[in-house]
Amino acid sequence: RASGLPAGKTLEDFDFDHQPTARTPIQALASGAWLTEHRNVVLLGPPGTGKTHLAAALAVTAARQGHRVLFATASEWVTRLSEAHQRGRLDAELTRLRRYPLIAVDEVGYLPFAQDAANLFFQLVSSRYEHASLILTSNLPFSSWAGVFGDQVVAAAMIDRIVHHADVIPLKGASYRLRDRGIDTLPS
Ligand code: ADP
Ligand code: MG
Fold this sequence. Notes:
By secondary structure, this protein is an alpha/beta fold.
């Protein structure tokens, strides 16, 4: 898929009974108003709590509303920006990406960034600040992002821009993947 969106992840097939506190904030975002306001969404929580599913579903919702969207992992974004940087085209690429009202960055925190990667990612966040929306997902609380980006100053400046106009939605509980496999259910 050109958009990078994982297939088959929609709001209709998300079971909010498994993630009840997310229901109200996610349903409010389904209107798409946050995109025209250039706001961000951050989904935080442990593995299997539905971060990727909800990020994809909000991006699908935005696409259905006529917005161009791109979806990739944080590592994929860094690779893409670093290729543009090597060609001397970083600013052109950031400008081009701003024409997408929504970019989803999945899995911030699974892999630590080297310093140049952290700087490139910071430039992506800065270039979109108050111009175009981001959805980010992370298994780590903001307090641990300094470790991901290897630099407390860069992490703080980035978090400041991300959360200034954002809904931060914590996801909780056991992994839905384990539930799928019946691990938390007793045999009848
Ligand atoms: P995370 O990104 O937080 O690790 P995922 O979004 O990848 O978790 O969810 C793991 C799997 O479980 C995916 O196949 C996802 O579609 C499914 N899933 C997670 N939470 C729910 C839910 N509440 N309702 C329906 N499917 C879910
Ligand atoms: Mg995920």
